[in-house]
Design brief:
Blueprint lengths: L13 E10 L4 E3 L13 E9 L5 E9 L5
Antiparallel strand pairs: 1-2, 1-3, 3-4
Length: 71
């Protein structure tokens, strides 16, 4: 087994990273998944990332991804 870990930083400009999960049963967004009452996949996952440029400009990007539920 490989005993040493290697860290490869992607960027040091992330100011924040947020996730929300759509609970299809209650038709509401929640900030955690996998806790009591949540089984399977959420209906959708929303995430937002805020980055700071080299000049100090703050930009936020967000999207929602529908989750595929194979029956």
């Amino acid at each position: 087994a490989y005993r040493r870990s290697v860290v490869f930083p992607i960027t040091d400009r992330i100011e924040s990273l947020q996730f929300m999960y759509l609970d299809d049963n209650k038709d509401e967004w929640v900030d955690s998944w996998g806790s009591a009452g949540h089984e399977g996949l959420p209906g959708q996952v929303w995430f937002s990332i805020t980055l700071k440029s080299g000049t100090g400009k703050i930009s936020t990007y967000a999207t929602t991804i529908p989750m595929r539920h194979d029956e």
